[in-house]
């Protein structure tokens, strides 16, 4: 068989739907075809990357984490770099972790939401006495 194949052939070899391949390309975790358009062609590197994506998913990584690993890791089974996070306690039995590399405006909105959630969790319901 030839070294280059169509989307249908790639999907058959990878044992996934062509729609999934297009989704991977749109998410940036799989490079686009060698030649775009009606006669789009893919090669063994695409097949290897799909196998790597599936292996990483098997190890528990999400597509977002795989995408964060970057295009330079295509074909490799490297784990993405750890992202620093901020830890917020919601009470005795709950914690929230938030990525620390978010823009300040986004972190402020998240902090406000966490404050609201903390208040709701710590607030005793009016009928709590009835349950005790």
Care to describe what's here?
By secondary structure, the chain is α+β, with helices and mostly antiparallel strands. It has two domains: about 5-75, Orthogonal Bundle (Multidrug-efflux Transporter Regulator, Chain: A, Domain 2); about 85-130. Helices cover about 45% and strands about 15% of the residues. The chain has helices at about 5-15, 20-25, 45-60, 65-70, 105-120, 130, and strands at about 5, 40-45, 85-90, 95-100. It has a two-stranded antiparallel sheet. A hairpin with a 2-residue loop joins β3 (about 85-90) and β4 (about 95-100).
Number of domains: 2
Structural class by helix and strand composition: alpha+beta
What gross morphology would you assign?
Answer: elongated
Number of beta-strand segments:
4
Report the portion of residues in β strands. 5-15%
Distance between the terminal alpha carbons, to the nearest Å? 72 Å
Strand order of the largest sheet: 1-2
Estimate percent helicity. 40-55%
Count, helices: 6
CATH class categorisation of the largest domain: Mainly Alpha
**Unreliable runs:** 71-80
**How many strands, which pairing sense, and closed or not: the largest β-sheet?**
2 strands, antiparallel
């Amino acid at each position: 068989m030839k070294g280059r194949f169509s989307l249908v052939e790639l999907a058959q070899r990878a044992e996934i739907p062509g729609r999934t391949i297009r989704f991977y390309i749109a998410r940036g975790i799989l490079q686009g075809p060698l030649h775009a358009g009606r006669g789009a062609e893919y090669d063994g590197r695409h097949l290897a990357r799909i196998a790597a994506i599936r292996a990483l998913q098997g190890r528990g990584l999400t597509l977002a984490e795989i995408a964060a690993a970057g295009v330079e890791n295509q074909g490799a089974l490297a784990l993405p770099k750890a992202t620093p996070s901020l830890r917020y306690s919601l009470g005795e039995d709950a914690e929230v972790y938030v990525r620390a590399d978010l823009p300040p405006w986004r972190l402020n909105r998240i902090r406000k939401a966490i404050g609201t959630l903390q208040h709701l969790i710590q607030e005793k319901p009016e009928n709590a006495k009835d349950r005790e």
